[in-house]
Amino acid sequence: MKSVRRGVVAGLLGGALALSTACSSGGGGGTGGTTGAASKAAVSAAVVTIEPANGATGVKPVGPLKVSVTGGKLTTVKVTDKDGKEVPGAITADGAGWAPKGGLSVGTQYKVSAEAADDKGVVAKAESSFTTLTPDKDANPRDNISDGQTYGVGMIVSLRFDRAIKDKAAVEKGITFETSDGSVVKGHWFGSQRVDFRPEKYWTAGTKVTVHYRLKSVEVAPGVYGGVDSDEPFVIGRSQVSTVDASTHQMAVERDGKPYQTIPISTGASEPKSWNAYNGTMVIEAKEGSALMDSSTVPGLEGSAYKHKVPHSMRLTDSGTYVHGNNWSDHSEFGHNNVSHGCVGLEDSKADPDNGDDNSSAGKFYAASIVGDVVTIKNSVGEQVSPDNGLSGWNLSWNNW
């Protein structure tokens, strides 16, 4: 990387001495001549300095760009990229300096033109060009939304990075949410590689949302940049909020704030403890259809081992809590007993062990649900779900978010 230390210094240097002589002769033999006056162009007392130096490469996008003057005041500063797009900036009140209002873009060549005037109005000019660095490393951010998709009112945007983030404030500044109803969205960090975003309360049905990522030129850790500039729009669909009561073995479903249906369920058994269902508010984070469930992937799970496909499966937590079809328990269990390994089971058909029946309770609920729908479990003997387990951030108060 080329050293970026010297600035460009320029004053208006000018001046040329002009001398003219004329001769003539007359009949009397006499001679005569005149000498022209010398003239010198004025030199400005203003000296303009541009940093980084002309021709510099590997320049960081934040910090190095400065324009200053001694012996005068700046009158004009213009910084443009190779496409002619101007970089916003402002001259200080005393006229002694100029700085950009924000960061520059990585991997971009810039041209700087500046003018200043001394107290006699004599102008000095300076020009420079430099190129910002091209990052060797980026944090490889990935979120959980897709362009133009429709999500439920509990949807939380979760952004994960491959590398630890040191400048979390810079990341948050580089992510903005545009909402059609003016909803304010805030971020909450779970460790150094994950930040989740949500409004104070559930989204309003029909809200249009666009996430603006401007992280490509943001240094998120020493030598590591954000890696992405993009806009991702999505829409909030109808409201569906389901409440599972583990004590009554029923799930009450609300649509757009009104009672919609009640479905008999069987949730996590009270014994052994590893079968307990979580209490708290969770969000459908994926619809997985017939999901392969393997007891060996759940640490500490007691009881007989199992590994089989489960129909109409919708994931609620990263640790393995689902709302799913149950096509192995007897009809009498639903609405009466909790026999699952911590999930919420809805009756499904035994006719097709792998896929269940789309006309069963489980099949109809699966078809009616979308990612982002809310499922709350109450009156379970289990623990409270952790806010970072899946999209369970609604269990944090807004003050703690």
TrEMBL record:
One GO BP: cell wall organization
Protein's recorded name: Lipoprotein-anchoring transpeptidase ErfK/SrfK
Pathway: Cell wall biogenesis; peptidoglycan biosynthesis
Pfam families: Big_10, YkuD
Keywords, ordered alphabetically: Acyltransferase, Cell shape, Cell wall biogenesis/degradation, Lipoprotein, Peptidoglycan synthesis, Transferase
Active site: H324, C343
GO molecular function per UniProt: acyltransferase activity; peptidoglycan L,D-transpeptidase activity
Native source species: Kitasatospora atroaurantiaca
Sequence ranges assigned to domain L,D-TPase catalytic in this UniProt record: 240-378
GO cellular component: extracellular region
